[in-house]
Amino acid sequence: MTDTVPDTDRPGGAPPPDTPLPRRKLVFAVVGLALLMFSLDGTSVAIAITTISGDLGADLAWTGWVITGAAVGQILALPLGGWLSDRFGGRRMFLAGVALFTLTSGLSALSPSIGALIACRLVQGLAGGIMLPAANGVVAHQFGHDRDRALALFTSVFPIGAILGPLVGGLVLTTWSWHGIFLVNVPLGVVLLAFGLALVDDPPHRGAGRVDVVGIGLLVLTLLATMLTITRLGSSGSGTGSGVLLTALAAVVAVLAGVAFVLHSRRRPDPVVPVRLLAGRGLGIMNITNVVFGAVVIGFSATLPLYAQVRYEMAAFVAGALLTGRAIGTIAASGASVALLRRAGFRPLLLVGLGATAAGLVVTAVPPPFGDPATWLFLGSTVLGLGGGLAAPAANNAAMHLVPDQVAAVSGLRTMFRQMGGIAAVSVMTAVITASGDPGRAGGITFAVLAGLMVVAGVFVARVPNQRGRW
């Protein structure tokens, strides 16, 4: 626990340096609303894919890149967002991310072709990837020794967006058009910019320094080649001769670029991503855990409706509604996790959460021993949500308390690893289900495999030293 010196022992009665700042709740509201805007955008756009395809005269394969492009941009920017915040200031990067996201939302609404829309969405993803790590750094600075609880509360923002996004997207699409899904971000973004300029203080940062151009290039090449390999593994054309060659070539490039990046980072005194953030002091275990956690949560959300339809022949609406259980469970358990974090420490909550998440996957994987399949799958979804709600705030703090002076960088890497795990899970699980002669049974096996990976991650997490109280 952080010790504080009484105000009377400081010159002029100045508060301790880790004291929460007066406007922290207003700043949290601004930053939280920005995160909610980003979350809503990601889930509401999915509702309009078929409408966008018809209106712009594009096939669904290309239109799907309206979602994929934003995800790619976000993953590329996330590890750079923390570095940029550390060099140029969290306030500046947060406001730049909001401004760029707002601008590209307006341009997306005005896009005359699918190519222009995909380009705008790629930049939107970049803006979000810059904004998210900076937002964590801003909140950590504002809340001082209470930053653990404030950062843990961020966990509930994205599930709220996951619930509201399809509803907002459907409402706008019904009463207006797909253009409106992007346009609603513009006035909200302008308001956030105005309040951000007035309220947000700049966290301490190092200054610009020399730009690690080589490190950035190697990092981007590693991420692009890795994502291409993952998506090719889940592609229907990857089994052909040319498909296998392309997948193998992408994998080789990813490995070589990754090794070169690590070697470069070890030699350079001030790299874009220090090696110690990837593997040092328990961070390596947490990074691997975040890959598995992202694979479970994102993979489950993306494939549960498909699984329910192919195994139990459920209607699309009922299959999609099953995810409500996960969202509600996550929001409810996140509050309990935040309340217990200081008393129990992150490790017990993380272990219980990972165990509950694995249990939810097992329930989903096996046929219902009683009741109808919809009730049984809703139960599995809710248990998984409860586990995720307990684990996510604890996992956030587990990594960040190890390097409290680099909150933005660690939060960017954490989200990047979760997103990459999610992309891998969605690609592989979808390919397995669609290629199997018994897709329902194949889906159940994939959920069981994810449960096993979660248990293995829990074994390694048990080795990370616990942290109670403030950090």
TrEMBL record:
<feature type="transmembrane region" description="Helical">
    <location>
        <begin position="26"/>
        <end position="50"/>
    </location>
</feature>
<feature type="transmembrane region" description="Helical">
    <location>
        <begin position="442"/>
        <end position="462"/>
    </location>
</feature>
<keyword id="KW-0813">Transport</keyword>
<feature type="transmembrane region" description="Helical">
    <location>
        <begin position="243"/>
        <end position="263"/>
    </location>
</feature>
<feature type="transmembrane region" description="Helical">
    <location>
        <begin position="93"/>
        <end position="110"/>
    </location>
</feature>
<feature type="transmembrane region" description="Helical">
    <location>
        <begin position="348"/>
        <end position="370"/>
    </location>
</feature>
<dbReference type="InterPro" id="IPR011701">
    <property type="entry name" value="MFS"/>
</dbReference>
<feature type="transmembrane region" description="Helical">
    <location>
        <begin position="314"/>
        <end position="341"/>
    </location>
</feature>
<feature type="domain" description="Major facilitator superfamily (MFS) profile">
    <location>
        <begin position="27"/>
        <end position="469"/>
    </location>
</feature>
<feature type="transmembrane region" description="Helical">
    <location>
        <begin position="376"/>
        <end position="395"/>
    </location>
</feature>
<keyword id="KW-1003">Cell membrane</keyword>
<feature type="transmembrane region" description="Helical">
    <location>
        <begin position="211"/>
        <end position="231"/>
    </location>
</feature>
<keyword id="KW-0472">Membrane</keyword>
<dbReference type="GO" id="GO:0022857">
    <property type="term" value="F:transmembrane transporter activity"/>
</dbReference>
<feature type="transmembrane region" description="Helical">
    <location>
        <begin position="178"/>
        <end position="199"/>
    </location>
</feature>
<keyword id="KW-1133">Transmembrane helix</keyword>
<feature type="transmembrane region" description="Helical">
    <location>
        <begin position="116"/>
        <end position="139"/>
    </location>
</feature>
<dbReference type="GO" id="GO:0005886">
    <property type="term" value="C:plasma membrane"/>
</dbReference>
<feature type="transmembrane region" description="Helical">
    <location>
        <begin position="416"/>
        <end position="436"/>
    </location>
</feature>
<dbReference type="InterPro" id="IPR036259">
    <property type="entry name" value="MFS_trans_sf"/>
</dbReference>
<feature type="transmembrane region" description="Helical">
    <location>
        <begin position="151"/>
        <end position="172"/>
    </location>
</feature>
<dbReference type="Pfam" id="PF07690">
    <property type="entry name" value="MFS_1"/>
</dbReference>
<protein>
    <submittedName>
        <fullName>Drug resistance transporter, EmrB/QacA subfamily</fullName>
    </submittedName>
</protein>
<feature type="transmembrane region" description="Helical">
    <location>
        <begin position="62"/>
        <end position="81"/>
    </location>
</feature>
<feature type="region of interest" description="Disordered">
    <location>
        <begin position="1"/>
        <end position="20"/>
    </location>
</feature>
<dbReference type="InterPro" id="IPR020846">
    <property type="entry name" value="MFS_dom"/>
</dbReference>
<feature type="transmembrane region" description="Helical">
    <location>
        <begin position="284"/>
        <end position="308"/>
    </location>
</feature>
<keyword id="KW-0812">Transmembrane</keyword>
